[in-house]
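Could someone model beta-D-galactopyranose with this protein?
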Amino acid sequence: MFLAVCVCGIVGMQAQKNESFRPGQVWNDTEGNPINAHGGGLLYHQGTYYWYGEYKVGETVLPADATWERYRTDVTGISCYSSKDLLNWRFEGVVLKAVPDDPGSDLHPSQVVERPKVIYNEETGKFVMWMHTDSPDYGKAEAGVAIADSPTGEFKYLGGFRPNGTMSRDQALFVDDDGTAYQFSSSEDNQTMHINRLTDDYTKPDGTYVRRFVDMSREAPAVFKHGGKYYMLSSGCTGWSPNEAELAVADSIMGEWTVIGNPCTGPDSEKTFCGQSTFVIPVQGKKNAYIACFDMWNKTDLQNSKYIWLPILIDEHTGKLSIPWLAEWDMSVFDNK
Ligand code: GAL
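Reply:
Sure, complex below.
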């Protein structure tokens, strides 16, 4: 009897399809395991979405020498999930693995590897991953780059560096319509955002960069383009603890950026519904449909941090973008505006 109940439970879990987004709730993959892809980024490639994130496994610790709340888990690698509908995700494995046998590697378990983002280079046919690589005390402040021939890896680590010789922590990638790619990075001790233009193969900065959001302490950038304008969603700078989100807009990506303000509305909107931005996905096949992805960090148990995905709604009269709290929603929100 007990066995029958267990087996039914497992089969039931596997068969269960996600029909709606439920922000902040446990979100299981197609095998019934909680999705483990934190600080993540998405890529749409040939009809499939790929979600890459920090694969956080094991105990969360606060290092004995920590002077601030730098709770951590050992580096175990970058995970990848695939989906056709953004709701049901299949685990594709750990596509960039930690390197436990080389203490000098950026990917050694003792180090910091966060906020992976992957873009596809049409010219080289390579999938290029950028991530924040750091020393355990976050003093190194570098960007690491890895490449692969397939979206599901395995990715080969090329190395880490300070883009244009400057610090780089939280980061995002953006590919413009002309194929030029940019890295946005929290630089200068997280005080100022740098927008670094990348080489044609996307693996390095090309030497041209601008300083924006000077002394504004923005982190967790997520960049997207809508109606010919560039938008950056970001958080303030309070470690794993939530703060108020901010949306900014620019006519040209390396031009002047104007702060619009907090796009979140509803309960806890002044602290981003207890989340922190990580990515904005343009929904394929729908016009003016974007999903804002946030991490809901559980700082003392990081592997059990959850996700908050919400639609970005665009007012049809004013063009204003907002991110309302919705406890449960599906893609039809984009049809009912
Ligand atoms: C946050 C950052 C996270 C992580 C954390 C460490 O501000 O967005 O990616 O670095 O600090 O405390």
